[in-house]
Amino acid sequence: MILVDTALIRREAEGRPIRVALVGAGFQGAAIVRQIVTATRGMQIVGVVNRHVDAAVRALTDVGIQPAIRTGQVSIEDAIAAGECIATEDAIGMACADGVDVLVEVTGSIEYAARVVVAAIEAGKHVVHMNAELDGTVGPILKAKADAAGVIYTFSDGDQPGVQMNLYRFVAGLGVKPVLCGNIKGLHDPYRNPTTQRSFAEKWGQKPAMVASFADGTKISFEQAIVANGTGFQVAKRGMLGPDFSGGDPTAPLVPLEETVASFSDVLATADRGLVDYVVGARPGPGVFVLGTHDDPRQQHFLNLYKLGTGPYYCFYTPYHLCHFEVPTSIARAALFGDAVLAPIGGPRVGVIAVAKMDLAPETVISELGGYEAYGVAENSDVIDAENLLPLGLALGAKVIRPVLKDRALVFDDILLPEGRLIDLLYAEQRDRFSSETRSS
User: Which residue in 31, 133, 287, 347 is a FRET match for 226, CA 20 to 30 A apart?
Assistant: First the structure.
């Protein structure tokens, strides 16, 4: 981002780099380390955490850094003070350590990530994350805790929700009123699972369940939920509209994005607030888009002159999202400017509920996002509360205690939650703090 680059150059010249600790050394985490070490001025990796330390070591040695392996907050602090870069399994020790300005969380977990993020916030660290699943479950209460601690809690640029929010802010800054934030997908099949996605995952060095969560709609549901919570928007219906121009064939020719706008027009014409949604089978993918309106006839004339059409819905889009390449910009925005890329603006507006991917018998355990048992669907938070629907972020590890038919949304009475989890306490605190009346205002 223009402005951030010059600020980072200045920090480098002053010998005061932003000190970054990263939690999660998997596919994205290792790539973020590479981007910071090889391409980002004014920023320094001081430590990498992974539940198996070998991956943290590898992420650093792959870019020419020989890390010191440490455990315990004091030991980590001493090593950072001595100029060493740390590899560790001790996420809490790293999150609380002096010598860390920003903690970056990229594990894709929920309970583990919640504990690390809360520890970092309580220790006065800014938190930048790429964890839509955590944010879509308890983001509003984490944001409230960060506000109270005087630190930034934010989703990252580079992933589609952050790119949408950048575009939303750009469009609003033009004087155009954003009315829909959209995501572009190439495939949506709620019954995809780790078996069906294994070959694709192996080709790209990813986990089959994670890839399945992209295909079955879980990932986009979480992504659009956090955009809704950052804008005050909602979904038009459970699961969103999601018009599919592929005819169910992911190899079908893609249609221009502008030709999909009419699919949203009728709903937008009657909506009392902005919406989040997605489209399948459009180009440019995997980009994002924002639809906006303008009331000034003269400005409408200029928008038409500049090739955005006659309205009433003007389509703005970003044709790519560059994931780890853009994370350092998010870190700098938080640390240098106090600017969040994307964070909840209050109580939850949209959440992600668990829907049975198959007939679920008693004693079945819901194992993982993108797994065999459940998929995620976006729903407005007032409906989630009114119907006691089970958030997918709480469902992981839960045991089914009565039969649930395929494609039925689960409720809390269908399952038994594991004991002693922070994520459940945070969700209860969030529900208590943000009433349904607040969310619908």
Answer: 31
Question: Strand 102-105 relative to strand 126-129: parallel, antiparallel, unpaired?
Answer: parallel
Give, for 401, the enclosing helix (H) or strand (E): none
How far apart, in whole angstroms, are the C-alpha atoms of residue 26 and residue 379? 30
What pTM does this model have? 0.95
Q: Tokens representing 2?
A: 């223009």
18 and 120 share a domain? yes
HSE at residue 130, side-chain half, CA atoms within 13 A, is 29
Residues 122 and 217 in one domain: no
Burial 17-34 (b: 16+ CB within 10 A, else e): bbbbbbbbbbbbbbbbbb
Q: Which residues pair with 306 in a beta bridge?
A: none
Is 174 in the same domain as 238?
Answer: yes
pLDDT digits (tens, 9 = 90+) for 350-385: 999 999 999 999 999 999 999 999 999 999 999 999
SS3 324: helix
pLDDT confidence band for 243 (50 / 70 / 90):
very high
Structural domain span for residue 416: 350-439
CA distance 385 to 410: 13
162 CB-contact burial (10 Å; exposed 0-12 / middle 13-18 / buried 19+): buried
Are residues 219 and 297 both part of a single domain? yes
Last residue of one domain, picked from the residues 337, 366, 395: 337
> What domain count does the chain have?
3
Cα separation, 276 vs 280, in Å, equals 14
Beta carbons within 8 Å of 49's beta carbon, 6+ residues apart: 21, 22, 23, 24, 25, 56, 88, 89, 90, 91, 94, 116
Residue 344 maps to a domain: no
**Shared-domain flag, residues 219 and 358:** no
Residues 168 and 314 reside in one and the same domain: yes
Same domain flag for 285 and 330: no
State percent of the chain over pLDDT 70. Answer: 98
